[in-house]
Amino acid sequence: MPANEPPRIAVRGLSAYFASVAAVRDVSLDLEDRRVLAIIGPSGCGKSTFLRCLNRMHETVPGTRVEGQVLLDGHDIYAEGTSPVTVRRQVGMVFQRPTPFPTMSIRQNVAAGLAVSGRARASRGQRLEIVERALHRAALWDEVKDRLDAPATALSGGQQQRLCIARALATEPEVLLLDEPTASLDPISTQRIEELVYELRREMTVAIVTHNMQQAARVSDRTAFFLGGELVEVTSTERLFTSPSDPRTEAYVTGRFG
Amino acid sequence: MARTRRTRARRRLSNLVMQVVMYAAAAIATLPLLAILAYLLIKGASAVSPTFFTSMPQPVGEAGGGMANAIVGTLILLGIASVVGLPVGIGAGLYLAERRSAPLASTVRFLADVLNGLPSIVMGIFAWELLVRPVGHFSALAGGIALGAMMIPMVTRTTEEMVRLVPVSLYEAALALGYTRWRTSLTIVLRTAMGGIVTGALVAVARIAGETAPLLFTAFGNQFWSTSLREPIAALPLQVFTYAISPYDEWHAQAWAGALVLVGLVLVISAIARLATRKRPGGGD
Please, which residues 34-63 of chain A have a Cβ atom closer than 8 Å to chain B? Predict the structure, then answer.
């Protein structure tokens, strides 16, 4: 990738607060186009909060506040007049626990985002096509193709999580945020999702928060290490795990704390 | 050794005593309903026949007759009450659940609780003052609205509770997909909570089905066939009341039969509510 290509997302001086407590302090980093950024750090280091600032989910919690800039393709998503709803349609998100909509079938779940993404006028056939494609991309198609109208809650936990990824992919976001997507899954499901993340970087920008350093090493191009709400270091994954420049990073990745 | 045996014996004894007390309390709690049902069946079953549902009240002295007008009247009143009470109640409940900590929300919550405890006769007088006196005559509409107003606080509180049971994670998932707040509430959250809300609505309908006091000066009752919303209308509880205080034995029998049908109606609605709860996806008993 040429070095002069502009980043997909440029974060500048971002701070995030719960009431008066800063969970994220003055973070600046770039998310490069079609690359996977892993965000690691001990519990409570602000990595999830940081991720939730990238699609304006942080502000949905009462009493929260964000300072600084998040430039998506050069436009500040926190600029006045920018709707969080528009931002979230461009920046998809998958959460730690699978969140299929329990009243909907598998098919309806995947199509749930389409209804609001301006593709509402897509014909039935087009919608089917989009649903199938999204399920293919999420590596779930073969397991559910014969029961698309079954309730989503009938799927296993790992399948539900891939369904949530398919749901996020169906609206063709430019960026996908994954907040510990495998934390509640078994090893086989985890492996499938990791393979998926690795594939997705061909088409989009991905940021993944994880507790699991091996996972970060396996799926990401670059890794950011957070500690106490601050960004300690962000560099290529290989470098961060082999020769980090900050002693705190080294202590963490070698398992001396956290 | 002897001591542990003694404590163990004492534990067993207290366990036994408490178990007996609990079973007794549970039995006493269900006793009134069983007693009422049994008594109603003894007194009223003989007068309940197919014609009871299809024929009109007979004049004094003539045997037989039914309460077709009162049964239809009660159904019409419940229909009006639902049209009034459900949208307002569900809307208010949704508001309370969404803005749970807003100052206005706690005020609304408090007022709903007060309204819930308001004696139904007061609701009747109020409806009379507002809907009957200005018009100059009793009407089905006034009765239905009075009952609907009674439903509002019940539906509001159950809706709020059901919506609060919807996990925040679902709400966030919808927002992250680019749903607006109102769309999330009206589609994802409301649909997920729908089973519980339907149950709450049915329970509210069952509760007001037997209300008599608010109808005394609104729907008023009617000895004749009427389905007009602008005219006084017959209702089962009113008919039972009229017959029960009459001096005629035939009418007393009819009152028992009416009461039995009314209780049957409430039981059926409650049973449907139970079934609706069981079908709730992801939830259930």
Answer: 55, 57, 60, 62
A199 part of a folded domain: yes
What pLDDT digit, counting tens, does each position of B148-166 carry? 999 999 999 999 999 999 9
Provide, as residue numbers in chain B, all residues whose Cβ is less than 8 Å from the Cβ of A117: 178
Q: Pairing between strand A75-76 and A21-31?
A: unpaired
Query: Facing residues of B124 across strands?
Result: none
Chain B residues with beta carbon closer than 8 angstroms to that of A89: 177-178
d(CA A69, CA B261): 68
Which of B169, B177, B198, B279 is best to mutate for the A interface (most A CBs within 10 A)? Answer: B177
Cβ atoms of A111 and A127 closer than 8 Å: yes
**For residue range B63-78, what is the model confidence (pLDDT) as tens digits?**
778 899 999 999 999 9
Find the CB nearest B282 among A85, A153, A167: A153
d(C-alpha B81, C-alpha B83), whole Å = 6
Range of the domain at A199: 9-99+173-253
A164, closest residue in chain B (CA to CA):
B173
Distances from the Cα of A40 to the Cα of A206, B68, B223, angstroms: 14, 73, 78
In a domain, B170, yes or no: yes
Of B178, B180, B281, Cβ closest to residue A103: B281
How many domains are there within chain B?
A: 1
User: Does the model's pTM come out above 0.90?
Assistant: no
- The count of other CB atoms within 10 Å of the CB of residue B48 is 21
CATH number of the domain to which A228 belongs = 3.40.50.300
Q: Which two tokens stand for residue B35?
A: 């007693």
Interface contact flag, A116 B175, Cβ < 8 Å: no
Contacts of B196 in chain A (CB under 8 A): none
Query: Roughly how many angstroms between the first and final C-alpha of chain A, as a whole number?
Result: 34
pLDDT given for residue A257 in this prediction: 74
Q: What is the pLDDT of residue A120?
A: 55
Is residue A109 in a domain? no
Whether A232 is in a domain gets the answer: yes
